[in-house]
């Protein structure tokens, strides 16, 4: 019994630190139910869950040292914020001009990937405080709400 507890204590930190990717996927999956005002886009999301799951954790997956031994860290940082999304949307409009046709599966998947990436960026902004006015974002907001600051 003691051996199991000791093993769990040493294993637990590695289990806890790896929740970011899962959290981003969960945020995007919950958000898909809120797309009632845009049924066409919602249908793309529902049809192309693989693209949504690829876009939701992007680019955090490249920060990890498991991904090419961390050599893609700078690319992950460069593609994590608004300028990347702006360029990606411009690329989308050039490559797959609107309106997307019903037979344009690649365009639908790319748009769904970008919606997952946008969900990621919004979640990051809330988490880090860019949208909340809290210095440490969601962490401080939760502390203030749950523990009176």
TrEMBL record:
Every Phospholipase C/D domain range = 23-129
| Record-level GO cellular component terms | extracellular matrix; extracellular space
Q: Which UniProt keywords apply?
A: Signal
Q: Which residues form the signal peptide?
A: 1-18
One Pfam family name is Zn_dep_PLPC
- What terms describe the molecular function in GO for this protein? glycosylphosphatidylinositol phospholipase D activity
**Entry-linked InterPro entries:** Gprt_PLipase_D, PLPC/GPLD1
Domain of life here?
A: Eukaryota
Protein name per the record: Phospholipase C/D domain-containing protein
**Source organism per UniProt:** Adineta steineri
């Amino acid at each position: 019994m003691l051996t199991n507890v000791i093993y769990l204590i040493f294993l637990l930190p590695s289990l806890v630190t790896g929740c970011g990717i899962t959290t981003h996927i969960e945020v995007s999956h919950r958000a898909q139910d809120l797309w009632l005002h845009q049924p066409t886009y919602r249908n793309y999301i529902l049809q192309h869950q693989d693209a949504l799951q690829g876009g939701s954790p992007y680019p955090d997956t490249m920060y990890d040292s498991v991904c090419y031994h961390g050599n893609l860290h700078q690319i992950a940082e460069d593609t994590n914020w608004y300028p990347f999304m702006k360029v990606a949307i411009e690329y989308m409009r050039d490559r797959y001009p609107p309106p997307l046709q019903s037979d344009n599966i690649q365009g639908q998947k790319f748009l769904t990937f970008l919606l997952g990436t946008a969900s990621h960026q919004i979640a990051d902004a809330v988490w880090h405080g860019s949208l909340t006015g809290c210095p440490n974002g969601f962490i401080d907001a939760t502390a203030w709400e749950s523990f009176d600051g």
